[in-house]
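Lab meeting, item 3. Inverse folding demo.
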């Protein structure tokens, strides 16, 4: 039987982040309220959507014995059984293997991990084979009086191996079904602990989770996964998939300078990276410069511990937008205030930039970099292209 190569998005793994649809330059990807799908008639198999996909839902071509229409895919809850998975597809199809390899080496879309980052394991636990973790802590990070409820949730994997490196995420699928009786979708949460555990030497990790209220959400509904996680009690068990992410990874070379820019829970990856340096590279010659945006000091996760870290380890610029009696500041304002330091770091080929947080900050940060560079005689368009292709400029926004 002749098999057909088809790009199909796994609805069980997809987190509906819209990245694939935004990335596809030929408009082959579309979505409805339920699924993101690929139009077979438009897709030319170029694979631009694969590398930015944070979960691997669209990682490789699949082999099928017939063409699945867009209309059919839009109704799926999981992939049909006759669709061969990645491994089977690799064995059966050399082209699919080549595409997969290209995705992991970062060829094609210009997104590569930092040269000195460790090789990250990905997709060890899938939707049908999740790892079970036990909640060993759930602590509120934001001040009690503040409306923003951000939590530090510790998950222990017991005897189950769950390796990760700083910058990776895990997947959580809230139990139960939605109003239409469909299983909930998986959501991604960045790991906030370094690879040797939230507590050094323990098989545990922490997440930084903001409770999404009806007021916060675009659809006016409280966040299903965030409320599930924020309400967990010690001793509860959680099904975890992943780890995910092969490019937004911490460089291991202690001589690298890291410019970290985040808002709110975007700080999770930077906490993991900072803890890595604090524990294992305390005398690292590289500079860490953090721009951290929050509404107020009381709503800035990890504010207390951050204040205690020495400037030699991490230089922190806070941007507070709603602190009473203080001028409204965004991270990009603080970047402009530190233009001289940023320009100096950008001249250094050992400098990496990581941006993580609200979607809106992406353009704001790029504009700030462009202005800072213009004043310093650097062409930002060329410099940022080069940094991207060298795995030194990474953006993760939502
Ligand atoms: P704002 O006070 O304007 O909402 P949140 O608490 O909603 O997660 O937001 C974290 C921080 O990011 C807040 O200080 C928020 O300011 C700020 N912020 C909102 N939009 C942007 C943007 N486009 N660029 C940078 N920071 C932003």
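The presenter then showed the designed sequence:
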């Amino acid at each position: 039987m002749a098999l057909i190569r088809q790009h199909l998005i796994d609805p069980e793994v997809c987190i509906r982040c819209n990245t694939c649809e935004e990335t596809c330059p030929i408009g082959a990807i579309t979505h409805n309220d339920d699924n993101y799908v690929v139009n077979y008639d438009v897709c030319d198999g170029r694979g631009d959507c694969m590398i930015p996909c944070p979960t691997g839902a669209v990682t490789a071509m699949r082999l099928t014995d017939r063409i699945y229409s867009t209309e059919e895919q839009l109704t799926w809850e999981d992939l049909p059984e006759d669709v061969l998975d990645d491994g089977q597809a690799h064995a059966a199809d050399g082209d699919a293997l080549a595409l997969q390899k290209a995705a992991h080496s970062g060829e094609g879309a210009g997104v590569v991990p930092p040269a000195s980052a460790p090789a990250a394991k990905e997709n060890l636990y899938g939707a049908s084979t999740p790892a079970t973790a036990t909640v060993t802590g759930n602590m509120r990070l934001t001040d009690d009086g503040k409306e923003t409820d951000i939590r530090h949730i510790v998950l222990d994997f017991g005897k189950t191996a769950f390796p990760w490196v700083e910058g990776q995420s895990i997947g959580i699928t809230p139990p139960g079904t939605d109003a239409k009786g469909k299983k909930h979708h998986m959501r991604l949460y960045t790991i906030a602990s370094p690879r040797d555990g939230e507590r050094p030497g323990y098989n545990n990790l922490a997440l930084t989770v903001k409770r999404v209220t009806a007021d916060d959400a675009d659809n006016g509904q409280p966040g299903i996964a965030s409320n599930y996680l924020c309400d967990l009690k010690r001793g509860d068990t959680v099904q975890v998939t992943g780890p995910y992410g092969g490019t937004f990874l911490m460089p291991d070379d202690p001589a690298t300078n890291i410019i970290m820019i985040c808002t709110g829970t975007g700080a999770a990856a930077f906490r993991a990276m900072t803890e890595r340096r604090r524990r294992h590279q305390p005398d690292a010659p590289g500079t860490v410069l953090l721009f951290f945006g929050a509404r107020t000091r009381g709503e800035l996760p990890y504010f207390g511990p951050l204040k205690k870290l020495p400037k030699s380890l991490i230089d922190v610029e806070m941007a507070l937008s709603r602190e009473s009696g203080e001028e409204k500041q965004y991270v990009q304002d603080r970047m402009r205030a530190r233009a001289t330091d940023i320009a100096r770091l950008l001249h250094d080929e050992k400098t990496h930039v990581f941006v993580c947080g609200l979607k809106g900050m992406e353009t704001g940060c790029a504009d700030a970099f462009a202005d800072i560079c213009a004043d310093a005689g650097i062409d930002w368009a060329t410099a940022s292209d080069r940094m991207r292709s060298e795995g030194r400029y990474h953006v993760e926004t939502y």
